[in-house]
Amino acid sequence: MSKYKFIQISDLHFSRIKNFTSFIEVAKEKDAPHLIDKLVFEDFKRNFITKWGKKLIYPSTFDSDVAIALLSRLHGIINNFDVLVITGDIASTGDDDDLRIAREYFDGKIPKNWTKAKNNFHSLFKHGVPIITVPGNHDRYHDFLLNPGFGPYERFFGMAWDFDKKVSNYDDGCKNKFYVKYSILEKLDSCLIFVAGDFSLRHQIYAEGFLGHIGQGRVDSVLQGMVSVTNKIRSNIINEGYKKYAVVWMVHFPPCFPGVDSGLKLINDYDLLNAVKNTNIKLLLAGHTHEPLWYRCPIHGDAHIFSCGTTSGVDVNNSNYYSEFYINVTGPDEYEFNAECYELSVDAKNKKIEFSVMQDFPAARKNKSFNFSIANAVANINNGPSSDILKS
Ligand SMILES: [Fe+2]
Ligand SMILES: [Fe+2]
Question: If you measure from the C-alpha of residue 240 to the centroid of ligand 2, how many angstroms do you get, rounded to a whole number?
């Protein structure tokens, strides 16, 4: 028994406001900065004249029809999988209202204004399949300027980010225990291990550039926590007699994502790549960019990075996606895997929204130009760890 299957969803962006596209997205995608003034005013009116309240800028949210189609699909397929993995931005903001709606979605509680049809969904947990998460930048927004910081995420999703279902854990001896969690799935003679790290900004002062605090992450001492927890679990499970195991890392921000906007970048991402290489990680799951992409680690060809795409977020350019993974564990840190990406499709005739497999994933993305250079990567590694790592 050494075969595992899991589902990855990401960037759900659940909110008390459904089907909303932020002015920032519209202005950026239409390449029309002159629209910003007008749209800022529109947002201002929405936020202060309506009951939406609290935010000067409100980020884009989610498509309620897609969210319902997704929940229905998950109920249909989740029994065939060992775990459901969520790589961040579960909620649109870190406000209690948004996080509560996100949490209750998995319990099958759908707000009345999402659909006119009567949908009595059951809780996804009734299937007994674990659901594990890592927070994203949106889940950490805590004030009217979308500034980042440690907020109420853990109150809704548990200290171990597993909905308080005792699937995941954290190392009490790790000083980054608030930001690093792990889950161990065991079968007869093998284990599948997930180590999750939260690289959301701790404070807006760690951002780069104007409005960088909204979309950026930063690799800091949390990385050391991921490395030490990974190595500790490896030696523990070997002592327990397991001869076969696979380690998968999960984060929200994909490192060196090709062409990523500077406002969405992961600062110090080469440190993460370096750790992926030195810790012999073969699979890194991420989200954040809202675009699905399967690419090789630029400094370690054996490592694969998956960015899921947004599963239910409203995005002016992209569709919605989720992925299914198949892993065959063959030895200690030895495994083969494959993945399929599913893209939203609309059946207009039958008025149905479905997810169907993308035949050309990841080949369709191969022509996209990468904005990093191997020379830069090597220079970064030769220069050693960044100052953030050294400080910790
Ligand atoms: Fe997102
Ligand atoms: Fe994000």
Answer: 37
Q: Has residue 46 been placed in a domain?
A: no
Question: For the chain, what is the domain count?
Answer: 1
Q: Which one of the ligands is nearest to 11 CA?
A: 1
Is 50 within a domain? no
Q: Give the residue-averaged pLDDT of 12-22.
A: 90
Please report whether residue 313 resides in a domain. Answer: yes
Q: What is the CATH number of the domain that holds 95?
A: 3.60.21.10
Give the whole-angstrom CA distance, residue 95 versus residue 108: 20
Dist. CA 323–CA 155, nearest whole Å: 28
Q: What is the pLDDT of residues 294-345, one digit of tens each?
A: 888 888 888 999 999 999 999 766 789 999 999 999 999 999 988 999 998 8
* Residues with C-beta atoms within 5 A of ion ligand 2: 89, 136-137, 288
The string of pLDDT tens digits covering residues 177-230 is 999 999 999 998 899 999 999 999 999 999 999 889 999 999 999 999 999 999
Which has the closest alpha carbon to 111: 18, 43, 192, 22? 18
In sequence order, what E strands does the chain have?
3-9, 83-86, 131-133, 168-169, 180-186, 190-197, 217-218, 244-250, 266-267, 283-286, 293-297, 300-307, 321-331, 334-347, 352-357
Task: Name the one residue in this structure whose structure tokens are 């799935």.
Answer: 185
311 is a domain residue: yes
